[in-house]
Model the fold of this input.
Amino acid sequence: MSSRTSMGLTDWHSHIWEAEHLGPEFGPQLDMHYTHVPSHSGTPEAHRAAMERAGVEECIVIGLVSDHLGVRVPNDYVASYVSTWNGRAVGVASVDPNRASACDDLREAHELGLRGVKLAPPYQNFHPHSRDAYAVYETATSLGMFIIFHQGGVSHRRGVLEVAQPVLLDRVARDFPDTTIIVAHMGQPWHNEVVTLLRKHPRVIADLSARCARTNQLRRILKDANDYGLLPKLVWGSDFPTFDPKVHAEQLLEAAETSGGELPTPAELELLLSRPLSAVPGIVQ
Done:
């Protein structure tokens, strides 16, 4: 396998949490699907150690709030940790659009120094076109914050798949053309919808977090994106603590090296792995 890029990695999608933040449902169901216990592996100390082992120089650290599933990773918890990275980490808040206080919660998160907001319709049980969701988009836009959407499949039994399809973001991107939107996990299993969004909307990008461990799926994603020249609109992420960043980066390179030339070259993927946060408008100040 090729050596890791000497430029260092940028992890565009990682989490921190304490087990109690995930509530009585989310954590145990997460652990059911993975051989380790990610619900107990997401502490700030574990995050820093994993990023150092992988050679991560910059990262995005994401919170998550869902009243529907009883999840609450506090925004001030994320902000406090990000502040220890000396400007090399960007914190992303989460607010639940179903709460009457959602917009005020987002303003408070912005005051804490968080630069983006994570929204997850299938976890939070809201429609991306709802009035409450649009109020959050409008607030984020007015504050100059970017939006990360978990707009794709979920394994949680009470997740709401009917609001999860990435194509629902087309209207959002049309109505907020100057707001940077990141589609997490390449919208799996609907990655072709994400390819269409990337071609159409200049400020929509997608991350490959949690996809690199699934080789056949990853190859389809890379091939379809590369067919349309969309590699510059992809960024890499680990989805720590569900996946280890060092292993996840190696899996991305291995996919290219064993593809028989059908995928982007390892050199092209090394550039993707090291794409800095400043490369995308709206991520850093």
Residues 1-6 have pLDDT under 50 and may be disordered. Strands lie at 9-15, 56-62, 65-66, 71-72, 89-94, 116-119, 146-149, 181-183, 204-207, 234-235.
